[in-house]
Design goal:
Elements (H helix, E strand, L loop, with lengths): L3 E8 L8 E8 L2 E7 L10 E4 L4 E4 L1 E3 L7 H4 L4 H4 L3 E6 L11 H10 L1 H4 L12 H8 L6 E7 H8 L9 H16 L4 E5 L10 H13 L3 E5 L7 H15 L2 E4 L13 H13 L4 E5 L5 E4 L6 H4 L3 H9 L1 H14 L14 E5 L13 H8 L3 H11 L5 E4 L4 H8 L4 E3 L13 H16 L5 H8 L1 H6 L16 E4 L22 E4 L2 E5 L2 E2 L16
Parallel strand pairs: 1-4, 1-5, 6-7, 7-8, 8-9, 9-10, 10-11, 11-12, 12-16
Antiparallel strand pairs: 1-2, 2-3, 5-17, 13-15, 14-15, 17-18, 18-19, 19-20
Helix pairs in contact: 6-7, 7-8, 8-9, 9-10, 10-16, 14-15, 17-18
C-alpha cells in the first residue's frame, strides 16, 4: 500500500527544467511514482495531501552549517527544518569536535564557544569522526554530513605553534584524515584565517588534500583572505587542489570589504578559467551582505598562537595588547583579512556571559562611545570578560557581488548559520526562503527552477549522493512543499529568530518533520556517510 500521495502539486524537480503538475507517491521513505497530470489513473494511498497551489521540490541542502552541537542539543531544530533544509554539512571552517583527544576537545570547545556554545550541556561521548556520526544516528531533526576539520586535526597532531609540522606530525595528520574519510566524512574543511589551521603552509595542506582525493572527497577551505588579497587567496586554493588532484568547494565564496566592491566578476573569471582547464570546483554563498564570526577571530594570528589561554594572557598584558591594537587598527591583521579595522562595521551579535548582554546589538564603535572610550578599549575588555566567547556581525559585503556570484552555474546555497547568541545573523533562520522569495520571485535574479537546482541537485552532486537532490522515482523522499507566491524569510536583523512563511510541509525519509507549518516531534534525520573505495 502506498503511504502518501501528494496530489495536484507543481513539481520543481531540481534539474532546473520548467515545473510541471503531477501527483507524487511516497512509500517506505522513497518516491515510488510520479504521475503527470492527465496521464491515466491516478495513484491512491493511505493518505492523500491536496497540494494544489503549492510547489514540491527536493529538500534543501545547507552546504555550510554550524549545527555541530545544535543538532544534538535541540531536537526541534526549527531554525533549519522550517526552512526546508533536509541535510546540513557540518565540520566547517576547519574547527569542530572530531577527531579529538581529551586535550584537543577542551581547546576546541573553548575556541568556538561563540559558534556552538561551550558544550557544558553536551555529553561528549565521542572522540573519532565515526563515533560523532554514530551519536547523530541516535536521532536528529535533519540529516547531516561531516567534513574533517583541518584546524582541529592540526591542533591534535601539532598543537598551537606557528611552525611547519614535522614528518611524524604530518604522518599523524594524514592518518587522522584517512581515518575520518574511512568512517564516513565527505571531505575536509579549513579555516585559513583561524588558528591553528592557518599556520599550515600550502605544502602541508596539499598533502592532506591528496589523502582526501584518494577517497573521492572534496576540500572546503575558508581561504586566507576575503578582503585584501582575496583574489590571490582564491587562486591559491585553486592551484593547491589542482596540484593535489582534489575537488574544491569554496566556502561562503564572496568578495568583501571596500577593496573588493564590484569585483565579483573577477572571481568568476578566475573560476571559469580553472573549470575550463579541467578543475572540479563548486562554491556556496548566503544571500546577505554581512558576515558573521567571533570577535577573537579579528586578532592577528600571532596573538592566538598557543591557544585560548595564551590569547587571554596577551590581552591582559598592556604592552602586548597595544601591539595587537596596532596590527588590528593600523596594519590590518590577517584575522581581519588584511584590512584595517573599521569598528563601526563590527556589531556584537552574541555573548557567552549573560551579564554582558548590554553589548548585543551595538557596534563596537557605538559601545565605545557609550563608555566614552576608544573602540579598542571596549573590544579588549569584552574579549577578556567574555572569555573570547563573543560573536559579531561584520557589515562589509556588497550586494552586486552577492548577486553576481549566486548566478554562477557551480553555485550552491549555504547558510553559514551560527545559532548561538541573542542576535544571530538572520541567515541562520532565513537563507533558503530568502533565496526563493526575495532573489527568485521578487528580484528575478534566478528563475525559481534554477534557484531550486542551486539548493538541491547541485549540492547533492558535490556530495556524490546518488539518490538525493531530485524529485525522481526511486529517490529518497526528502521533500519540501512551499507556496511560490508567499515563501519568504521571516528573520530580519532586528528579529533574527523569526521562522519563514510559505513552507507548510517538509518531509525527511517520507516522514513529516514540518506539517501544516508546525514542527512535529519526528526525528527522521541521520548521518549521511560517504563510503567511497580508496583509490
Amino acid at each position: 500500500m502506498t503511504d502518501l500521495v501528494i496530489k495536484d502539486v507543481k513539481v520543481i524537480d531540481g534539474t532546473g527544467e520548467p515545473g510541471y503538475r503531477a501527483d507524487v507517491a511516497v512509500t517506505d521513505g522513497r518516491i515510488t511514482r510520479i504521475h503527470p497530470e492527465g496521464r491515466g489513473p491516478r495513484p491512491t494511498a493511505a493518505r492523500t495531501l491536496d497540494a494544489d497551489g503549492l510547489a514540491l521540490s527536493p529538500g534543501f541542502i545547507d552546504m555550510h552549517a554550524h549545527s555541530d552541537l545544535a543538532l544534538i542539543r535541540d531536537p526541534d531544530h526549527s531554525a533549519k527544518a522550517a526552512q526546508g533544509v533536509t541535510l546540513e554539512v557540518l565540520g566547517q571552517d576547519g574547527l569542530s569536535y572530531a577527531p579529538v583527544d581529551d586535550r584537543t576537545l577542551g581547546q576546541v570547545r573553548q575556541v568556538i564557544a561563540g559558534w556552538n556554545g561551550d558544550g557544558s550541556d553536551i555529553d561528549f561521548d565521542w572522540r573519532t569522526v565515526g563515533e560523532y556520526l554514530d551519536r547523530l544516528d541516535r536521532g536528529i531533526a535533519v540529516n547531516a554530513a561531516y567534513l574533517i576539520p583541518q584546524g582541529t586535526v592540526r591542533m591534535y597532531a601539532v598543537g598551537w605553534d606557528d611552525r611547519d609540522a614535522t614528518d611524524a606530525e604530518l604522518d599523524h595528520m594524514r592518518r587522522l584524515v584517512a581515518e575520518g574519510m574511512e568512517q564516513g566524512a565527505v571531505g575536509m574543511s579549513s579555516g585559513l584565517t583561524y588558528t591553528p589551521g592557518m599556520y599550515a603552509k600550502d605544502a602541508e595542506l596539499t598533502e592532506l588534500c591528496r589523502v582526501v582525493a584518494g577517497y573521492d572527497g572534496y576540500y572546503c577551505p575558508h581561504h586566507r583572505s576575503y578582503g585584501a588579497g582575496a583574489l590571490e587567496a582564491y587562486r591559491e586554493m585553486v592551484e593547491l587542489t589542482r596540484s593535489a588532484d582534489c575537488s574544491l568547494h569554496l566556502a561562503h565564496a564572496t568578495m568583501n570589504f571596500g577593496v573588493n566592491k564590484g569585483k565579483g566578476a573577477d572571481l568568476l573569471e578566475l573560476l571559469d578559467e580553472a573549470i575550463a582547464a579541467g578543475a572540479d570546483i563548486s562554491l556556496d554563498t548566503y544571500p546577505y551582505t554581512p558576515g558573521a564570526t567571533t570577535l577573537v577571530a579579528m586578532l592577528p594570528s600571532w596573538a592566538n598562537e598557543g591557544g585560548p589561554d595564551a590569547t587571554l594572557a596577551r590581552l591582559r598584558d598592556d604592552a602586548t595588547a597595544e601591539r595587537i591594537r596596532h596590527h588590528v587598527e593600523v596594519i590590518g591583521s590577517d584575522g581581519c583579512h588584511g584590512v584595517p579595522m573599521e569598528w563601526d562595521t563590527i556589531e556584537i551579535s552574541g555573548v557567552s556571559d549573560p551579564g554582558l548582554a548590554g553589548y548585543v546589538g551595538k557596534t563596537v564603535a557605538e559601545a565605545a562611545a557609550g563608555h566614552g572610550e576608544a573602540p579598542w578599549v571596549t573590544a579588549r575588555r569584552l574579549l577578556l570578560a567574555d572569555n573570547l566567547g563573543s560573536t559579531i556581525l561584520q557589515h562589509v559585503g556588497h550586494e552586486d557581488n552577492v548577486r553576481a556570484i549566486m548566478k554562477h552555474p557551480v553555485h550552491t546555497g549555504g547558510s553559514d548559520g551560527i545559532l548561538q547568541g541573542v542576535k544571530p545573523h538572520p541567515r541562520a533562520y532565513g537563507t533558503f526562503p530568502h533565496y526563493l522569495g526575495h532573489y527568485a520571485r521578487d528580484l528575478g535574479v534566478l528563475s525559481l527552477e534554477e534557484t531550486v537546482a542551486h539548493l538541491t541537485s547541485r549540492p547533492a552532486a558535490r556530495l556524490r549522493l546518488p539518490d538525493r537532490g531530485l524529485v525522481r522515482e526511486g529517490y529518497r523522499a526528502d521533500l519540501v512543499l512551499f507556496d511560490p507566491d508567499t515563501v519568504a524569510a521571516g528573520s530580519t536583523f532586528e528579529a533574527p529568530r523569526t521562522l519563514p512563511t510559505g513552507i507548510p510541509h517538509v518531509l525527511i525519509d517520507g516522514k513529516f518533520v514540518i506539517e501544516d507549518g508546525r514542527r512535529t516531534d519526528v526525528l527522521a534525520g541521520r548521518s549521511v556517510r560517504r563510503t567511497p573505495s580508496k583509490s
